[in-house]
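Input chain follows. Return structure tokens only.
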Amino acid sequence: MRRARWLMSAGFALSQAVLLGCQGNPDPPQIPYAQSSEQYSDKMDLARLEHELPLTPADLMKITPENLKGATQEQVDQIYARLTAGPIPDGAYDGRMFFPKGSSERARLAEIVGGGIKGFIVDRKAATLEHIGEFIWKGKVFYRNDGVLRNRIQDLLILKPIVGPNVEQIQKIDVDGKDAWLLFPAKLYCGQSLLDGRRESVIIDYAFTDDLPGYREMPDVLAGREGLDIRDEIRMVRPGFYLGRAYIKKVFALNFTLYNKAVAEKESPAFASSGSVAEDCWVGNQRLPAMAHKPSTQQARVVETH
């Protein structure tokens, strides 16, 4: 009964979140994509996509957390499928969730969350969850050597009804001069992507985290197997910059980016020239060096971005 009241409070808190104004989407990354339509049969196989249109280091340097918002979900999927996991991150990364241009994922996500926990209320129409995420979720902190991750929450006000007593016991860190509370722990490991099985991704698994130090039933249970059963996976765009996919009960929910400015500024120049990076996860058997100049026969299904 107590947990049910907590979950009801969680829904009420989320529904009362301050909504921010929507901004127009930018142009998508100016890189090659395969033609596609709404029909699944018209989509290019991901293995063929990477064989014909591999992403060069120059292509990857064109991708930013900002311009990904201007891509369609198909374009985001095509980018993700051509990435490798790269090294498992370490330290604090700034996070941002996003819903692609022309996407109906906001409304679908509300339906998934609404049905995921009995009494968990999510309303205020389509954009609410994205704005809530922007308002309280500020990224993730990776503890690479321990195989553990925690999420950075910058404002506990919205979660106050469900966090419970002894808030001072929640681990807190300073990121760029701002306090951040660490909640929703997860386990880190390499595992199969739910988008494609050709190579591994870095998996962020919330299912069995109640044995981790610092775990507190509320609100951490919301992300675990008794709540939304969240599972994230990430792949590296370039050093310091990762593209992620979040799943709720194994159903794709949303995209997110993770960015560490210090790592990006230190390691991206070498990556831009060599294209090489340490790989902690299995890269598969297909991985080929991207060619800077592709034969004209491989351009048949390349489309310009708009």
